[in-house]
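Data availability excerpt. The first of two example chains:
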Amino acid sequence: MPASSSMSKHQQFARCLQSTQISAMAPFHWLALAFKDIANAPMLSLVYGLVFTLIPAAIMFFVYRFDTHLVILPAVVGFALVGPAFAAGLYDVAWELEKGHKPTLLHSLKSMFRNPAGEWGFAVLLMVIMIVWMRLAALIHALYPNVVNPSFEQLSAFLTLGSIVGGILLVTVFAISAFAPQIMMERRVDIMTAVISSINAVKNNVGAMIVWAALILCLVFVGFITGTAGFIVIMPLLSYASWHAYIAVIKTKKPRGYE
């Protein structure tokens, strides 16, 4: 019995970390802090920005390679799915700057393995969702009219179902990934605790999360219309801002010495 009690005390799975209610305009403050992080760590931001740019560049390549717009929707959703899994290095840069330390590439790379079970589990979770989306997208494409230059009315079923399914998946991924990677990196908790805490924090701050999601979509759109070159700055900016969002929203028992 004592051993069981000790285990329940030190291994609490699927907990829900408390969150703070914030202003709907808080995301603009997160972006302002993110710009400061880029200015304070320009070379690291550039390195990660170039790496992140390869992902949307690959999407654009396939769009032009296969000369069809049908790959755009699943590709954009796929980009939204896998993006959060690769941001841990940039979270570490922002974290080091907040603590008054000088961030380094080696330290940021090591951060990706700070909580390997949780981080790899989260990556697998996103991969499963992405596979589900790709299968659903293939089924939805069956509704695409088999005619040349289809009318909007002929496209309505395809567009409606695709928008509904894609929207549901995007909202789901946004809710679980808004704070889960940051939680697992700082707290080293299990994946269920991180996911449940992230969903709860999003639910408690719907207004701010709508603004934040809109800003993300706008910036991602800017990245694509610049031929993916804009992602060199946009991806570090969003990653740093996501870290500041986590610091602002997820509570700790002991107050942090930074914002």
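And the second chain:
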Amino acid sequence: MSSIYQQQLGADFEKLHPRIQERLGFSSGDHRAFVGEGVMERVWHGPFFTQPFLRAGLARHITFPETGHNVPFRIENYAYQDPLGRETVTWIRRFHFPEHTRCFDATMIRSAARQSIVDYLGTHQHVAVDIDMAVTERGGLRLRSGAQRFREGRLAFRLPGVLAALADVEEWYDDAADCYRIEVVVRNPVLGKLFGYTGSFRSSWHSVVPEHIPAHALPLRYEARE
């Protein structure tokens, strides 16, 4: 089975650096997980008036208000088929600040109907974001947020631009340093830059069948609406 990123990128997947291809090329049938550990050289947020926005996402593992330098970091990617039969990849991020470990979690699927990767943010999949993907000149992967939708019970609506958090992410492989590098910037059209981080990590691979994916890596609720 092709990974959701191979399906989305098609022939362009082969333009990725081989280590990025390896990182994004596994699916639920491969029974393996990617774990990256490293350091975020800088974790930052916008001006003081962005704080309420960042604190609002704490409980559901979407945003957090801390900043720092040389913050220990861990990312876990597991592939599985969710209860709705969708091929899914987890993005479980942990930032280990001196006083708190903060979480920035998501699950991704590929929507045939939308012809896009859909990124469900947080623990309850209540925010769904279309993701535009492209290969960069250095063989990295660039992800940019598109349309965003809120889903909570019977409530469902597209988030207006003034409420959107638009992410611009690049991940690439640094051959000289033998590590993955990542840069993330999240903006709001009204508030400006909200938060972001820059750093690096090295990988390890683990054998894991879908039934043994740890509970912390799975959402607490699955949302059928894309």
